[in-house]
Structure formats: structure tokens, C-alpha cells
Amino acid sequence: MDLIFSLTLNGLATGMLFFLLAAGLTLIFGLMDVLNFAHGGLFAWGAFTGVWIYGLSGNFFVGILGAIVAGLVLGAITEYLIIKPVYGNHIQQILITLGFMLVLTEMLKVVYGPNQRAAQPPEYLDGSFTIGDVTIIKYRLFIILMGIIIFALTSYVLKKTKIGLIVRAGVMNKEMVQALGINIRLIFLAVFMVGSAMAALGGFLFAPYSGVIYAEIGLDYGIFAFIVVVIGGMGSLSGSLMAALLVGLAQAYMQYYVPSLALAVNMLLMAAVLLFRPQGLFSVKGVSTK
Amino acid sequence: MRQLGKVQISTWVYLLFGCLLAVVPFVYDNLSMLFLIIQIFIFGIFAMSYDLLLGYTGIVSFGHAMFFGVGAYGVSIVLERNEPTLFFLILGILVALGAAAIISFIAGVLTLRLKSHFYAMLTLALAGLFLVAAEKMRSLTGGSDGLIFTIPDFFKDRTNMYLLALISLVVIFFSLRRLTNSPLGRVLVAIRENEQRTMSLGYKIFPYKVIISVISGVVAAFGGVLYALSIRFIDTTVFAVDVTLDALLMTIIGGVGTLIGPIIGAGLIEYAHHFLSELSDVHWIFERWIILFGIVYILVVIFFPMGIAGSIKNMYMKRKHKKEAKVQQKDNQIAS
Q: CA angle, corner B291, sides to A185 and B63, nearest 5?
């Protein structure tokens, strides 16, 4: 019982991290038909910047803020320099964002040094407590809570505010939104920045969770984000959450029972979804899956 | 065939270059330099196979390393388990190419119906699976320790290896050039330019894509075979994403859809890799040489989507058109 509970908690925490990464990706794709292969790079930048600021200030929440700001700034730069010149050309988008991913990863090594860095959760989140005979690691619980808060916040903005309405309409049919006199480019820039900030936040939360960060986490976790987006369906926020938790749980359980197949299972899951239901398991109706 | 004269000139130029390169090991006997040039030839072959997909058919694959790796492992496993004779070498090559053909056929049938984003991701996932499989199947592949094997004595001599790689490069280059100029190649270019229109002209797109992905896979596997033979050691890094990325950089910077471009790109990148890494003692920034290439690559994608070879070709064509236009103008003036 203890084991199953702890694996589930672990899986949910990993899933929440995947969700933070995948949420931006799925909205960007749904809204602007751009698949950003550099998204994982923002995750890594968030992790390193957050840990650096956290180390400087000694305050965990200042670190979170730093990671979010880094994500916003890098997101704006990415959108302006990299994505804007290649709207509408899928092949060029894939090529250029992948190149940017390389540059981001290497720049990270230049700025923060090529070595991996250790990260610790703050004291009040460190350690664990027990209920009955079940041990709960505080930091994992914290990640799950953060994930729920972010999901609730994003869902609220998407469903209850005017901007959310525009974004949702843009996902459905961006030409129509544009015809109604709304500057969809500006909306897209905002979504891109927010998505990047979520990825950066995910990266920072990941750092104390894994205990150590290195520049290549961007590529490694970027792949998971894609798996999540594909399984959840492009453009669907709640789909991404479900898929992220699914992938996180599969990852946690497989890593315990059959560690050699942990990565392969998720890859196979994605391959199966792509082959039999390319629009994803929880896809939004009306979104073109072109 | 009417353009025979034109085609012949470029063919002669390429052949001349090939012959010049063939003399190199006899004049310039620097072992590490020869090794570098062998690597350039091998990655030239690999990048050409990538160009068939990216440049001629418009398919972006992120899993091309899997064919390279299958080729490398195919020949290595056969040679490691048997005597290093010519017979087993040839058997190993055939096994490698056969395996690559089967795998690329299955992978192609499964994935090529998907749209570009999905295809790129699924190939990435497939190559990832091969990497994991190579690490886990220790009895067959040696896991992350890799495999050490011997090859027939004849090819242990670096000059002979050099000539083998060069001849392979030249033969593959001319065969692929012939292929891309054939009706099949024309259909592929049509698919790249506009899938719907090609379809409405009555061509079934899917079989063409499968054919080219099998050809590309087999050529890539041959590159892997040569790679394994040239270092006589192999480990799981041949399946890494970096291998695919290298091919991508070489093809894009050299020039997509030109075949000669990927070879130029391979030369540039392998050379830069070699020398910039050596410069890392001077300044640590050179250790991060990939940044430089990443930036060049991004600029190329935005401003020179044709790459080096394509841009030169374009300039040449423009100048020729201008000349022709001038001649025509003069003719008109004389006539009036």
C-alpha cells in the first residue's frame, strides 16, 4: 500500500511537471499551428536561471519569480526572432526551432558553465511526513499543488475572461478572429510568452525534485512534452493534463517495476496514438489536425 | 538527353575532383588528416541520403540516425562473431543493408501517412527506441561498452580505407544524381512542391514516399557500415539524436536538394568540428563550437534556404539568364 501510494504520488508529481511543459506547447500549436521544438530549451533555461536566483536570494519564491521572468523574456525573444519569419511553413518551423534548441542548450553552458548543478528544496518543503504507515515527501506534494493551481488559473483565464475567449476562438478558427478585428499576432505573442513562462516554471520546480540539473534536460524533457501533447491532443489544455498525468504515472510505475522499459513504454504509447488516433485521445472538436 | 553537353561538363568536373582526391593519400601522408577526410566522405554519404528525404521529397525526419546505426551495428555484429575475412565482410554489409531496407520499409509504411510534425516526432521516437534497444540487448550489441571487432587486413591500411570511402562516395553520388534526374526523382520534387497537385495529376504519393525512404535508409545504412569499418569500434552513440542533427546541419548549410551540397556541408562541419575542438585550449568558447553552427544554421534557414550549393547555383542561373536576355536584346535591336 505504502509502495503504491508513493509511486502514484511520484507519478503525479512528474506528470504535473510534464503538464507545465506541455501546456504552452499545446496552446501554441493549437492557436498558431506552430510546433516549437525549442520548447524544452526554455524548460532548461528556467531551471538554471531559477536555481541561480534562488541561490543568490535564498528565497525559493524569488527563484520561482526569476524563472517565470526568464521564461517570459526568452519567450518574447523566441517568438520575435525565430517563429515570426517562418509562419505558415511547417518544414522551416521544424528546422529553425530545432536549430534554436541547439543554440539555447549551448548558450546555457556558456552562461552557467558546462557542469551540472545541484538544487535543494527550501527547508520548509524538505523532508517528509507520515500519515498512518504512508510516507509523503513534502516537495512532491508541493509540485502537485502548484500544478493544480496553474491548471486552475489557466482554465479560469481561458474559460472566464475575454482574452481566454479570444484564445479559444483563435484555436478554433484564427482567420475568423482576425476578420473580427482582433490582432491575433499580439494574442499569439502573449500566449507564447505565457507558455514559455510555464515551461520555465516547470524547469525550476523540476530542479529540487531531481536534485541535479544539466543542460541536456531541455532535450530529454522536451521529448516527453511532445509525447504528452500528441497523446492529449493538440490544442487541448485539459487533454494535456490528463495525458501528462498518464505519462507521469506510466513513467513512475515502469521505472520501479521494469526500469529498462520506462522510456520505451511512453514512446510506444505515443506511436500507438499517432498511428491509430492522430488527433489525440482528448482532442478538441473543431481543431484542424492538418 | 538533349542537354548531354551541359551534363557532361559538370560530370567531368566532379570526376576530376574525385580523381584529385584519390591522389591525396599518396602525396599527403598524415594519418589524422586522412582519418578526418574519411569521416567527411562517410558523413557526406549519410548527409546525401538525408537530402533525398529533406531536399527532394520535403520530408523532415528526426530519426535518420537509426538507419546509420543499424548499418553500423549490422556489419559490426557479423564481423565480431566471425573470422575477419572478405566473405564475412560482404555478408555483414549485406546483412546491414538488408536490415536497413526492411526497417525503413516498415517504418515508412507506418509513419509516412502522417503530417510533417507528427512524422518528425514519430521518427524521433523510433530512433529513441533503437537507442534503448541497443543499450539493453547487451548480448548482441555489447550495450554501452560497445563492440570491438577486426576487419580484413586489406582495409586496415588507411589508404585502402580512404579509397574505399572515396569510391563509395563517388559511386553513390552519381547513382543518386541519376535517380533524382529520373522520372521518379521528378515526381518526388513535385511532391515536395505541392502534394495536392501531384495527387490530382494522378500520382499515388504514398508509394513514392515509401520508395524514397527505403532508398534513403539503405544509403544511410551504408554510411553507417563505412563508419563502423573506419573506426573498428562501435557503441550506442551511433543511434543518438546528435547523428541526425549532424546530417541536418550538413544538408541545410551545404544546400538542400543539390546532393553536392550535403557533401560540402559534411566537409565544412567535420573540419570545423575537428579544428574548433582543438582550439578549445586557446579559448573555452571553441569547445562550444556548435553554437556557431546553430546560429549559422538558423540564419541559413531564414535567409538562404537553398544553402551554399543552392545559392551558388541560383547566382549562376541568374547570370546566365541575364546574359541570354542581353543577347536577345541585341538581336532585337539589330533586327529593328
A: 80
Q: Are residues B59 and B209 in contact, defined by beta-carbon separation less than 8 angstroms?
A: yes
CA distance A50 to A197: 12
Write the CATH number for B155.
1.10.3470
Q: Structurally, how many domains does chain A consist of? A: 1
Which structural domain, as residue segments, surrounds residue A173?
Answer: 2-215
Domain that holds residue B113: 24-305
What percentage of chain A reaches a pLDDT higher than 90? 22
Task: Please say if the pLDDT value at position A284 is more than 60.
Answer: no
Q: Please give the full DSSP string across A214-283, using - where no structure is assigned.
A: -TTHHHHHHHHHHHHHHHH-TT-HHHHHHHHHHHHHHHHHHHHH-GGGHHHHHHHHHHHHHHH-TT-TTP
pLDDT digits (tens, 9 = 90+) for A30-43: 777 787 888 889 99
- Chain A contact set for B307 (CB, 8 A): none
Q: Which of A87-101, A248-262, B40-54, B113-127 has the highest mean pLDDT?
A: B40-54
In a domain, B313, yes or no: no
ipTM for the whole predicted complex goes beyond 0.85: no
Work out the minimum CA distance from B60 to partner chain A, whole angstroms: 7
In a domain, A278, yes or no: no
Check CB contact of B250 with chain A, cutoff 8 Å. no
